[in-house]
């Protein structure tokens, strides 16, 4: 055997996106347990080593279920992170030794992104603390989790361009055109005139206007809409240009 082959562990890490009532893109972070480390420095992406009897997709599904209590969530594998120094920080090494009861000198992670309606109740069976963080307020995280989040943003923008319907996984069942516009703008980073956007959306027969109007709002009340997945599949419309 070549002497410099590595002995390594494999994990999964999940970036879960949500869209809040203030029209901001959020991600779910958990809190790891470490003595003598301030709580604000203990946030991390949810993840786990892969068990001996599961593949990476199964491990990601387990992590998401333990995180949210939701059995089925949209899930997409997007990148492997294998920098030899990604777990070289002493606090991270100490946490791994405590969490897994075993010394781990090299860890490779397979990263996934998932989408969750932010009004879903989070019933975590593993973590005591699970919180939504606006994407522009994410603190400095352990390992290379900030890099994983940055890469996940690139991936979700590609995903929307290839399958526009996934954006509705983040919106409530009834939504306004402004909410859809703000979410699409946040994800795609495209500068789109809202009037042109509204006109384009109105031409899509899978976005159904409802006989309901916003109430108790300071601005002009807007109509609610819903997304019809069956009509979308028939049309096979992929993106807004």
Shape: elongated
The helix content, as a percent range, equals: 25-40%
Largest sheet: 7 strands, mixed
Low-confidence stretches: none
| Mean pLDDT figure | 88
Structural class: alpha+beta
SSE sequence, one letter per element: EEEEHEHEEHHHEEH
Roughly how many Å is the radius of gyration? 20 Å
Overall strand count: 9
Proportion of residues in extended strands: 15-25%
Distance between the termini: 54 Å
Tally the helices: 6
Q: Explain this structure to me?
A:
The protein is of the alpha+beta class and 241 residues long. The protein contains 6 helices and 9 strands; from the N terminus they run E-E-E-E-H-E-H-E-E-H-H-H-E-E-H. The protein has helices at residues 56-68, 90-100, 145-162, 177-188, 194-202, 229-235, and strands at residues 9-19, 25-31, 43-44, 47-49, 74-81, 107-115, 130-134, 207-213, 223-227. A hairpin with a 5-residue loop joins strand 1 (9-19) and strand 2. It is elongated and about 65 Å long.
């Amino acid at each position: 055997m070549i002497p410099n082959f590595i002995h390594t562990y494999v994990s999964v890490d999940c970036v879960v996106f949500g869209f809040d009532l203030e029209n901001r893109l959020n991600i779910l972070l958990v809190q790891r347990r470490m003595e003598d480390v301030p709580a604000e420095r203990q946030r991390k992406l949810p993840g786990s080593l892969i068990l001996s009897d599961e593949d990476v997709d199964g491990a990601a599904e387990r992590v998401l279920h333990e995180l949210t209590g939701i059995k089925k969530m949209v899930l997409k594998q997007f990148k492997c992170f294998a920098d030899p120094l990604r777990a070289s920080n002493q606090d991270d090494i100490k946490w791994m030794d405590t969490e897994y009861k075993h010394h781990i000198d090299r860890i490779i992670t397979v990263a996934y992104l998932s989408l969750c309606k932010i009004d879903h109740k989070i019933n975590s069976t593993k973590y005591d603390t699970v919180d939504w963080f606006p994407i522009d307020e994410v603190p400095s995280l352990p390992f290379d989790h900030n890099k994983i989040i940055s890469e996940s943003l690139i991936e979700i923008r590609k995903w929307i361009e290839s399958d526009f319907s996934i954006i509705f996984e983040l919106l409530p069942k009834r939504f306004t055109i402004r909410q859809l516009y703000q979410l699409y703008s946040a994800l795609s980073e495209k500068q789109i005139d809202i009037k042109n956007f509204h006109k384009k959306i109105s031409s899509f027969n899978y976005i159904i206007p409802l006989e309901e109007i916003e109430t108790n709002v300071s601005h002009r009340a807007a109509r609610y809409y819903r997304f019809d997945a069956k009509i979308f599949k028939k049309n096979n419309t992929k993106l807004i240009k």
